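[audit] Reproducing an earlier prediction to check determinism. Same input, same settings, fresh worker. If the C-alpha cells differ from the archived copy the diff job will pick it up downstream; this log only records the rerun itself.
[audit] input (212 residues):
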Amino acid sequence: MKKRHYSALSRDDVKLLGQGTDEDDTPIAFIHNIVSTTKIQSSVMPINLQYVASVLPNSFYDKQKFAAITIRIDSPACTVLLFSSGKLVLTGSQSWYKCLHASLRVVRMLREHILGVDFFVEDIVIQNIVGNAIIDLEGGKTLNLERMYAEQCSKCTFQKSLFPGLIFRPDNSPVVLLCFESGKVVITGGKCVEDVEVGWRRLWPTVRRYIE
C-alpha cells in the first residue's frame, strides 16, 4: 500500500463543525491522546541528561537503551521524553493547552533542580491527535470488516489472522481510521481537533454502509 500523506481540511470542511442537523447520526468522536513536540532552549547546551536524571523526580534514564529521559507528570497527566538537544516529546494530553502546561512544568522543574542554568519553551507543535468513537450496534449487528476490505481494498490494510482491526486510509482525508467489528473506531493522524471531528464526520457515511 502506498504511503499516506496528510491532507489538511479546507475552510468549507471546517464549516461542517457548525452545521450539525437532527438527522446527523455520526457517533461522537472523543479526543483520547495528543502527541506533541516542544523545543526547550537552555543557557547551557546540550543538556546533560545524566545529571538531570539524577536530580529530577519521577524521571528515568538509561542511555544504553534510549537517548532520552522519561519524565512522568501527574498534573496534567502525561509522559514526556527529554532529549539532550532540548526536544520534548509529550504523550497523553487531551488538548494543546495541556501540552503547553506540561512543557512549562518541565521547564519549571528543570529551573528548580538545576541552579544557574536557564530554561524556556520556544515552540510547541502537535504531531498527531488520536480520538475514538463507539458505533452503537444493536440487535447483534457488527461492522463487516471483510466486506469493507473487499470493496475498499486499495485504501485498507486488513489481516485478521494477525490483527483484528482494519486500517482505513481514505484519499484526501486528514485522518486514518482503525475499525473493529465491535464498532470501536480509533481516529488518528490529525494535526488539530477539527481534523478528528470533521474527518470522522466525512468518513462516517462510508463506514456505516458496513454495519450488518
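[audit] rerun output stored. Observation attached for the diff report: The longest strand covers residues 119-134.
[audit] end
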